[in-house]
Amino acid sequence: MDRRNILKLYRDAKELTGFRESRKEKGWMPKLGPNDFRSVIKHGTFEGRKAVMQVSPHENLVKVANDLKRYQSAAAGKPMVLQVPKILQFGRIAEAWFLIQESAPEGERILIDYPMSFGYQKEEVAELYWNTVVNFPKFDFGDWYVSDYFIERLDKWFTLGRENDSVKNGFITQTEKERAGRIITSTVMPSFKIEPFFSHFSNTDVIKVGDTYYIWGAEIVPKPEAAGIAHWLWGATLYAYQRNPKWWLGELNKWIDAFIEFAPENLNLGLVNLGEKMREKIRVNLLERFLGSLLVDLPLRRSPFDKLSEREIKKVKEVIRFAFLHFLR
């Protein structure tokens, strides 16, 4: 939706709820494309509490809120499990939905010098991820299969990639695109299942307050196993454009080793090492993430690329392509 219309929906929702927008914090508006916005997210207060309001014509925030409330009940009081800020109000207005959540307490990111990390931070994130997966409540997404997920994603990326000439503009070659598609759609493992997880999971989504971790702005959706791991690695790669691509690939492999080391099968069940199967699941999910960036996110300058210079975009493309080609082998 264009800027003028989505801001009108936000103002209507603000008036309906009594949400008071902060004059100091600007908030943000995630983009789907040029002058095409997915949502409006603003800081402020609601009934005397610091809060954040989200308004979107694209996302059913009523369903999002109900799913998050169910997750909150399951995760409450559990250590090293992602927590969700309290939900204060939600509903629908005209062509959009709105959701007001209490602001997460003041805290810090897990990786302060993002995307750089120490070994103990990799272990911390891996433990947090797996504890969250193990404690996730069950959700019924209907007849969703891993192949359905990837085919839907590829169809979206390929369609948008053709529209913005990502191959012609040098972000990816046709051969690379076709090979990635074949690898993703042909990977069939009996243990590769769909599970509930957050739509986003990266250092910029998580706030650490003492021993508690909050995830912000992420709905619960059906994802293939290890998709959360791939999202973390992909998210870090987007910010690694100041690093040598070969060196960064080494970092990615260290991250993968940490996630595999802390996988529940190895830690809790004492089974024979299942690392190679997990590594392949991570690889397939990562290829899908990198493919989306090369076909769509970079050509359209989607966030977080919308404020980068041409020189920085070139560096981002280099580091993503280097990692993409490695996992394409």
What can you tell me about this protein's structure?
The chain has 329 residues and is an alpha+beta fold. It folds into 2 domains: 3-102, Phosphorylase Kinase, domain 1, CATH 3.30.200; 119-328, Aminoglycoside 3'-phosphotransferase, Chain: A, domain 2. The protein is built from 10 helices and 11 strands. The strands form 4 sheets. Strands 1-4-5-7-6 form a 5-stranded antiparallel sheet, sandwiched between helices. Strand 2 (31-33) and strand 3 form a beta hairpin. Helix 3 packs across helix 7 (245-261) and helix 4 packs parallel to helix 9. The longest helix has 23 residues, at 275-297. The protein starts with a helix and ends with a helix.
Brief sketch in words of this structure:
The protein has 329 residues and is α+β, with helices and mostly antiparallel strands. It has helices spanning 3-17, 61-75, 119-135, 146-163, 174-186, 227-238, 245-261, 264-267, 275-297, 310-328, and strands at 20-21, 31-33, 36-37, 40-46, 49-56, 87-93, 96-102, 194-198, 206-209, 212-215, 220-224.
Task: Give me the secondary-structure topology.
Blueprint: H1 3-17, E1 20-21, E2 31-33, E3 36-37, E4 40-46, E5 49-56, H2 61-75, E6 87-93, E7 96-102, H3 119-135, H4 146-163, H5 174-186, E8 194-198, E9 206-209, E10 212-215, E11 220-224, H6 227-238, H7 245-261, H8 264-267, H9 275-297, H10 310-328
Antiparallel strand pairs: 1-4, 2-3, 4-5, 5-7, 6-7, 8-11, 9-10
Helix pairs in contact: 3-7, 4-9, 5-9, 6-9, 7-10, 9-10
